[in-house]
Amino acid sequence: MTDADIASLLDSADAAVCSEGADAQMRCYASEADYRAAEGLARAEVGLLSMYNCPSGYFCMWEWTEFGGDRVQYRVAGTKDLYSHWRDRGTSFYNRREDGGRLVDFRTRMPDPALYFAAGQYHRDLGKEGYIYGGNWNNKVDRIVLS
Ligand SMILES: [Ca+2]
């Protein structure tokens, strides 16, 4: 896959998994199987909760509840501004890292709300997480900060 292919996948609905490498570069794959083959991981186990498709050492966020649908994942500490395809899209997460962090929603002319998470914490449905200006955290995340 060329760099141009990866760049187009990053912003495309064709990307099932986008993963940050140890070099902090993002790479996207059209399927879980493609991802696992490229990274040298064992095949996903049938029947295993999909939250465990999130590799140890990563923070993972999914587009649907219960760790379903497309997934974006990061491993290197720092501030991760989501690519346009992934903004306002996260609905569940699993922080399979040994450090915490926070999710951030960008707001115009008001403070950006943050939702803090601890090491090992997961959330099945951000639609059930209250949001400071009313409503909930579903489809709001624009930035992930990893400690
Ligand atoms: Ca937002």
Describe the structure.
By secondary structure, the protein is of the alpha+beta class. It has a single domain (3-146), classed as Sandwich (Gamma-B Crystallin, domain 1). It is 11% helix and 26% strand. It has 2 helices and 10 strands; from the N terminus they run H-E-E-H-E-E-E-E-E-E-E-E. It has helices at 3-10, 32-39; strands spanning 17-20, 26-29, 59-62, 71-74, 78-81, 92-95, 101-104, 114-117, 122-123, 143-146. It has a 6-stranded mixed sheet with strand order 2-1-4-3-6-9. Strands 5-10-7-8 form a 4-stranded antiparallel sheet, with no helix packed on it. A hairpin with an 8-residue loop joins strand 3 (59-62) and strand 4. The longest helix has 8 residues, at 3-10. The N and C termini lie far apart (31 Å). Residues 88, 105-106, 140, 142 line the site of calcium ion. Calcium ion binds next to loops.
Described by the principal axes of the CA atoms, the overall outline is globular
Largest sheet: 6 strands, mixed
Strand order in space, largest sheet: 2-1-4-3-6-9
Hetero compounds: calcium ion
- Overall pLDDT metric: 91
User: What structural class results from the helix and strand content?
Assistant: alpha+beta
| CATH homologous superfamily (4th level) name | Crystallins
Q: What is the helix fraction of residues, given as a range?
A: 10-25%
* Distance separating the two termini: 31 Å
